[in-house]
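Consider the following input, taken from an annotated entry for DNA 3'-5' helicase (Porites lobata).
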Amino acid sequence: MFDRKSDFRSSYDFFKGIKDSFSCVPMMTLTATLSQTQVQSLCADYLKNPVLIKGSINRSNIKLNIKSCVTSKKKKSSRSAVKENTKEDIWSECATDIKNISGDEYAIVYMDFRSDVELMTSSLKLLLGEENVRPYYRKGMTHNVKKKTDSVFIGKEFQVLVATESYEVGTHSAHVDNIFRVGCMRNLSVMIQEFGRAGRSGNNTYGFLLINETKDDQRLAFWTKNCSKSEEEQIKAQLIQSWRCVYSIYCGRCMREEIISKFGEGQLELQCVDECCSSCDIKDERDFNAKEAIRLLLQAVLDLGLIQAYKDK
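Applying the prediction step yields:
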């Protein structure tokens, strides 16, 4: 409720009175991704003399991956005229990547808008089969259909669920091995919630953030629509923070450490030491033996000197 626009948050204002109306009734609030400021607000405004029990947001069994996401471009005909792709084509390359990464494993693909969910579902059905992919979104889908979709996915009756963030909070599908978030998240909490749907049984799993820098930033206009000035600035600041996390792979910073630091608690522990994040993969590839490199360099200089001395003779 702290993460939404004011018109959404105002619906929760009446919760502030519960602590006084039911002063003798124990209450518990549960959350995974509140900042320290939001925790303080929750404790002060909604609870009375609370006891705070806090764990780490770090999921040690999930590797954090960042990959480029390609959307289909305009095609040229034999006469060099530009031909527009149909809407169904836009996510075809991304869908192919998702298929190749997932293999036979179960996956959830998160997207921000219902229209993209429907298009991605169509693209994945062409690759995986009509019965192997289903969509899930809030508006336009009845409660019974959503309940049925969730039930059959938990029952492993199809392989890939394509969903908006309406499926991210509180869901528990223990068999999911791969999570794909298509597009840079509007804030870090979104990615933590979505990646947290994987590895519920404790096995090693993978979260993939698929980014397209040009296309992703175009969604800012939608997120800030009808916002107050202060809300707009907050949304922009959160998106900038998300991009800083993405660009950690270019700055030599561990992506996992970057996320943990933003939420204040937790230790960098891994279930598998070689499965941290894309940043650490790149860092490991860059690491080299400095002493050996210097020795080879000095040897090369010496050899060049000897060659030059031989030529001088």
